[in-house]
Every structure is written in structure tokens, then in C-alpha cells.
Amino acid sequence: MKHVLKPSQYAILVAIMLSASVGDSFLKRGMGQVGAVNLHHLGLLWHALFNPYVDIGIVFLIGFFAAYTTALSWADLTFVMPATAFGPVVIALIGRYWLHEQLSVSRWLGIWLIVCAVGFVAGGPSRTEHPELDQMDAGASR
Amino acid sequence: MTLSPFVHQWSAIAFVAALAVVGEVMIASGMRQLGDLDDIRARRGLLGTIAAVLTNARFVIGALCMALNFFSMLFALSIAELSLAAPAIGALTYIGNAIAAKFFLRERVDRRRWLATMCVVVGVILLAR
Q1: With contact defined as beta carbons under 8 Å apart, do A117 and B116 qualify?
Q2: Which residue from B25, B15, B99, B92 is spatially nearest to B62, judged by alpha carbons?
Q3: What is the rounded distance in angstroms from the CA atom of residue A132 to the CA atom of residue A140?
Q4: Is residue A129 in a domain?
Q5: Do A69 and B27 touch (CB under 8 A)?
Q6: Do A120 and B107 touch (CB under 8 A)?
Q7: B14 by DSSP, 3-state: which?
Q8: Of B108, B109, B115, which is closest to A120 when you measure between CB atoms?
Q9: pLDDT in tens, chain A (142 residues)
Q10: Cβ contact (<8 Å) for A117 and B116?
Q11: Are residues A81 and B94, on separate chains, in Cβ contact within 8 Å?
């Protein structure tokens, strides 16, 4: 049976693609305000928790982990994997179109390859059926 | 006997990638064991779903591996340059995940998914340049 994704499941995959990179961007901005942390200034890590950008970044990263585990409950790891690789693409595109940074040819090629990877798996089934394994797992989790 | 910097760096990179693969495979296995979280949420509510996830042994082991992965990544970055460590760990993790998914999770990794994995590996390396 070919698993067809529901619109809400596509929304989860889009959340995986966007949330980690957006969260990382907020963390980077917040830590830029907090300053460099090293072994002699570990107290800054506690201070960082009161920075709003760090807090927003943590919320986005918790959202990423929630979306990732949810996706793994109805899709194969090898189906979800390319979506997790999309983060650097989002950051590169933000750099190009928002921050007006120049992207080299090799980076454009990298973006194109990852987009192709997402397209390849999205066109196939999301889940491998294992009736006997699923039955054993269901018994074990009871 | 002292290890050469090359062996030292690549041992750390391989260790970080191995922890990520074990963590992700254990989390994926735990989620497969639990079944669709939307169905669980419909039956037991949001708190019941969170409790079901957090009491799943495979998920907990996977999450611990991911936490260890985070700290070992910090160590790897202290002995290897970011431009080497980040793409190398990313690429090794994607290849390791595909192999582990085929043999441990018994996923059907067909030509389409291998092609996607290789595109991701090359794409990550190119993006990090």
C-alpha cells in the first residue's frame, strides 16, 4: 500500500524544514548579544536564558524536535531525512535574499541537489509496511 | 604512542556521526513502535501523547544519544575546523542513517532514496564550502 500524506502531514514536514534553521538564526542573534562563552565564563549560559532571542530560538528548536518525532511516527527515517537537510538551504536563501549576501556557484549547486533530494523522496511512499514487526512492536509496547 | 592529528580529528568526527546515527535510529524505532502520534493524541490527549513518548525506552535511549552527540560535537569542534567537521559529520550521518535504516529498521531503501541520500550528502558538502 502506498502511503499518501495528509495536508497536515505535509505541514509537519514544512515545519521540520523551517523550524531548525529559524531557531538557529534566533540563537545566533541572541548569543551575539550575550557574548562569547568559554570555560571561565560559564555563567553567561545562565544569563543567555534571559535573552528573548535565545528563548525564541529554544522554542523553535523544541518545535523542530516535536515535528521531527511526529513525522517519524508515520514516515520512514529515510523519507524524513532530506527534509532535515533543508535547514542550511533556508539559511543560505535568507542570506541571499534578505541579507543580500553573494552565493557561490557551488552553494547554488548544493541548494539545487538538496531540493532534488526532497523531491525524489516526496514522490515515493512515506512508509515501509512491516505487518509482522509492527505487530511485535505493538505487543511489546502494551 | 600519540595519534596523528588526522587520526584524532577523524576519530572524533566518526564518533559524533555514529552517536547521531544510533540516536536517530533509536528515536525512529521508538516512534514506529508507538504508532501515529495523531491517533494517540485523539485517544489520550496531548499530555497522554507526551507521556507515551517520554516513557518509550527506545525514544529515551535515542534522546540520550542525541544529547551525548551534542556534547561530543562541541569536543570535535575544539579539535577540528568547522568547515571540515560540519559537512563531514553531516555527510557521514546521512549515509549511516540510510544504511542503518535498511538493516535495523528494515526500511525499503530503494534507488530513489539512495539517490536522495547521495544528493543530500553532496549538497551538504557543497553548501559548507
Answers
A1: yes
A2: B25
A3: 12
A4: yes
A5: yes
A6: no
A7: helix
A8: B115
A9: 456 788 888 899 999 989 988 888 888 788 888 777 666 776 777 888 888 998 999 999 899 999 999 999 999 999 998 888 888 788 888 778 877 788 889 988 998 999 888 888 877 788 887 666 556 555 555 4
A10: yes
A11: yes
Q: A36 — phi, psi (to 5°)?
A: -70, 135
Residue A57, domain extent:
7-141
Closest Cα in chain A, distance from residue B80 (Å)? 17
Angle at B52 between CA B106 and CA A64, to 5 degrees: 75
Q: What interface predicted TM-score (ipTM) does this complex get?
A: 0.85
Residue found by looking up cell 552527540 in the block: B69
Q: Is residue A2 part of a domain?
A: no
A78 contacts B104 by C-beta, under 8 angstroms = no
Three cell numbers, residue A94: 535568507
pTM for the predicted model, two decimal places: 0.82
Q: How many domains does one find in chain A?
A: 1
Rounded Cα distance, B120 and B1, in Å: 38
User: Residue ranges per domain, chain B?
Assistant: 5-127
